[in-house]
TrEMBL record:
Homotetramer. This is alanine--glyoxylate transaminase. One of its GO terms (biological process) is glyoxylate catabolic process. Keywords: Aminotransferase, Mitochondrion, Pyridoxal phosphate, Transferase, Transit peptide. CDD domains: OAT_like. The keyword DNA repair does not apply. Its cofactor is pyridoxal 5'-phosphate. InterPro entries: Aminotrans_3, Aminotrans_3_PPA_site, PyrdxlP-dep_Trfase, PyrdxlP-dep_Trfase_major, PyrdxlP-dep_Trfase_small. It is found in: Mitochondrion.
Amino acid sequence: MNFVTSQCTRRSPLRACARWVSTTAEVDELVTPHPRYLPDIEYTQPKYRGPSKEEILSLRQTHHGHVFHYYRMPVMITDGHMQYLFDEERRRYLDLFGGIVTVSVGHCHPEIVKAGESQMRKLMHTTHVYLNPEMALYAKELTDKFPGHLKSAFFVNSGSEANELAILLARVYTGNYDMIALRNSYHGASYLTMGAGGMHTWKYNLPMGFGFHHAANPNIYRSVVPKREAADFYAADVMDIIKGATPGRLAGYIHETIQGVGGAVMYPDGYLKMVYEMVREHGGLCIADEVQTGFGRTGTHYWGFETQGVTPDIVTMAKGIGNGFPLGAVVTTPEIMEAVSRKLFFNTFGGNPVASAIGRAVLRVIDDENLQAHSANVGTFLKTQLTKLKEKYEIIGDVRGRGLMVGIEFVKDRETKEPAKTETMELHEMLKNRGVLVGKGGLYGNVFRIKPPMCVTVEDMEYFVYHLEQAIRQLTGLSVTGL
Ligand SMILES: Cc1ncc(COP(=O)(O)O)c(C=O)c1O
């Protein structure tokens, strides 16, 4: 095996990438034969002068309490530039996880940095008991992105807070209490949202978030009925819950449009439409949690719910809304939002001028750089390549998703669909060693979650697919050309 000993790219000033690439040209049968290099970039990472990685790890272990991390030896990230991250030794990584679907338009995107910096020089904080132009203009610009009467926004700081408020609104507005959520869903880590979530791995053994009933997950890949019957079958389960486990009146139904933490799970077409009707017939509101799927990521549409032909009563968002700045929002109709004013309701930082200036800049960049269409193009390319990989390698049970929200589910056996948990962990580690960071998810941790900053390119994806194939070959004992 001949390692390239100079640089990761021909022009970029990076070093220490030698371990990730090879010049051996045994590539004919590979799906993506050429891209052994990450694309060149015009960026020079400043030299890192801080404490060593070992010191940071020790500080974290001593003073953070339990915070889990990826990889046997965690990666330390010191800088970011668009779709790339850099570690303390100036290794460049292709970031296909985007800080857990949060860096939407690119790490340290110059327009976002400019907007934040300029607002910080003017005014960092007031609270919304005073008027300030940023929050009001932002509310208008954000709600302009929504259909129908969804014209009222309330700003918070995270996805959990957004979902807390949405559920509060549903209960206060309808006067009902019972909520339906989905098994395998994730809606946050606050007490209430932990109760809404549907994975045992994210719940403590405590009373939490009362009033949630969890419907069967309409997961197309793992459906217990044929795909063409799945929408009816899983919608019927929601009706069964309404009839069998509630007083027949609902506060609401909360759902992701593609499950994120749950492993990029897609629902059968028509399912949400049927469920929305049932929920509304029983007095409830429909809440779309767009914390991961919003802001153009799904490619064909700005919001995930639009891909399913439904219009929710309440939409929650966070993560990509601020490109990494803590920000969240609830958008609903003015009538529903009015429910909150029946008591004093307040959020100290929500809609803070800096957060609002950054949120406005994110909206502008998505439009100016055409990132929604770009997500569709790059995502289509990626899925096509991954589908070819799936045809070659049995370990890939499913490739799914929309735009730049893609999942790859690894299984031990295509018939039984037994999750390939340890193999997924190995591949995850191997990809990191090849300079690619991906997310992991699903109840069994056997799904790769590909949700990069939306500025990622086809060339980046070629690099990823090439190295994923090499890693699969290495794992399964086939000949490899890298590492
Ligand atoms: C779909 C969804 N909703 C809500 C949340 C909670 O967001 P936060 O961690 O900002 O509270 C998450 C976080 O991963 C999420 O994926």
